[in-house]
Structures are given as C-alpha cells and as structure tokens.
Write a structure and sequence with these properties.
This protein is mainly beta. The chain is built from 2 helices and 15 strands. The strands form 3 sheets. Strands 1, 3, 4, 6, 9, 12, 13 and 15 form an 8-stranded antiparallel sheet that branches. It has a 5-stranded antiparallel sheet with strand order 2-5-14-7-8, with no helix packed on it. Strands 10-11 form a two-stranded antiparallel ribbon. The radius of gyration is 24 Å and the shape is globular. About 2% of the residues have low confidence. It binds magnesium ion. The site of magnesium ion has 7 residues, from strand 7 and strand 8.
C-alpha cells in the first residue's frame, strides 16, 4: 500500500516529469579524445610519451648546475652514481607540470647517521644554483632517526611523509611524483602555490601537498617568481657513501 502511494505521487509529480525529459546522452562527453599512450610492462617502465632523462647509457640530458657544463657524475652498469666532488646536476630541459619516475639506491654499506646517511634529493624545480628549488628528500630512512620533515619522502622541512615505506640500504626504491608548478601574478606575487603528490615504493607519502615556497635549510620559505625549470639532483655534502639513480623519465602535463 505504501509503495502504491509513492508510485502514484511520482507519476503525477513534477519531479517525474522533469526527469522523464533527461536522457543518458545528455551527460555523455565524446571529445576531446584522450591521446593514446602505450604503457610500459610495469609501472616502472616509461610509457610511450615519456621523455627519458636517464636510460643507463649517458648523461646527455644533464648538466652541472654551477657552470652548465656536461654532467660529470658516474655512469656505470646502467646506473648513475652521485659524484660529490662535482656538485648538483640538473636537466637541460625545463618543465612546468609533470609526472616523474625515478629510482634510487642507498649503498648497502652506508655509514653515518641522521641527515648524514645516504642524503641526496630531487629538486622538483631548480630555481638557481646550489640547493635553490623545491626538494623532495632522498635519504636512508630505514632505521635511521632524523627529524620527520627531513625523512625520505618528505618535502624538506615542509611536509612529513604520510608513511615510511623505505627499503633497507642496498635495495632499489622508487619515486613517482606529480608536480604542479606555482603560478605568479604580473607583480611577481604567487597566484597559485606549487602542489605535489608522491608515491614512494608505490605508497602514497605526499597527497596533493601545497608547498609553502622553495625549500630553505634555515628559516621560513617564501615564493619568488620563476618560469619553467630544470629537475635537479643533489650531491649532498655529507661524508657518507654516494647514492645511485636509475630509470629516470618524465611526462609533461
Ligand atoms: Mg637532501
């Protein structure tokens, strides 16, 4: 009985009449058609539209940050190893918004403690010499205590990782990053802040985090206007054994 009343009410009501005119087709979108991209065999492998930044063979896509000369880090056995003597390297290409994949490995025989143990970093936009930019920290964070906003997977001194999925030294680890660059007003003030999402070994550690500004070692970050920027890898000045990288690719968004 109750259903009969409800049905009658629906049939006679304007609610039913209005919806009777709506069609499923009204909410179907047919263009623009997303471009076809052939994925890799695994999520680690570059898809067909990726720019390969390091394929194990050479450093053709990279330069030394300080003098923009050819990158001098060590390439051996398909891997790239930090050479601390020469300092940071960065991509020749400049990027705005992108998806980045890279793999890194702390040596099995790593020594040191805290920030002086397998420290490197990925500057998601390099905005000057040295460590100027927005640093996604690379560090041995397997049984290695340090301040939590300086662990692997942190946005250095800004965002604590949501988990610690770090593998032990000697194992390869992955970062998959979505970077949305900041935008600026004509007067140089920030219009929209940078945002970043990071998967560390497939585990979400930064979820669309809005950055406070470029990374600072001391003090409070503040935005400074910049355009498209290189991706930079850090040669950290600590005394521990240097890390390695491999399989670095990027997709512009
Ligand atoms: Mg670092």
């Amino acid at each position: 009985m109750r259903y009969q009343i409800l049905f009658t009410a629906l049939l006679s009501g304007s609610f039913f009449m209005a919806n009777a005119q709506a069609k499923p087709e009204d909410t179907e979108v047919w263009d623009p058609i997303p471009k076809v991209v052939t994925p890799g065999e695994s999520f680690r492998d570059a898809p067909s539209d990726a720019i390969i930044l390091f394929n194990g063979k050479n450093l053709d896509e990279w330069v030394q940050v300080d003098d923009q000369s050819a990158a001098k880090w060590d390439v051996n056995g398909n891997i790239l190893t930090v050479n601390k003597k020469y300092g940071n390297i960065e991509t020749k290409r400049k990027f705005t918004n992108y998806q980045l994949h890279l793999e890194w490995r702390v040596p099995a025989d790593i020594t040191g403690t805290g920030q002086a143990r397998g420290n490197s970093g990925v500057f998601l936009a390099s905005i000057g010499k040295g460590d100027a930019g927005y640093e996604l920290q690379v560090l041995d964070s397997y049984n290695n205590k340090t301040y939590v906003n300086g662990m692997a997977g942190s946005i250095y001194k800004q965002a604590i990782p949501l988990a610690n999925p770090g593998r032990k030294p000697g194992k390869w680890q992955t970062y998959d990053v979505v970077w949305t660059a900041p935008t600026f007003n004509d007067d140089g003030t920030v219009k929209t802040k940078a945002r970043v999402t990071v998967f560390f070994n497939g585990v979400l550690v930064e979820n669309n985090f809005e950055l406070w500004g470029p990374t600072l070692y001391i003090g409070k970050p503040a935005y400074k206007q910049h355009g498209p920027a290189s991706i930079k890898l850090q040669a950290h000045g600590d005394k521990s054994e240097p890390l390695s990288y491999r399989n670095i690719w990027v997709r512009e968004l």
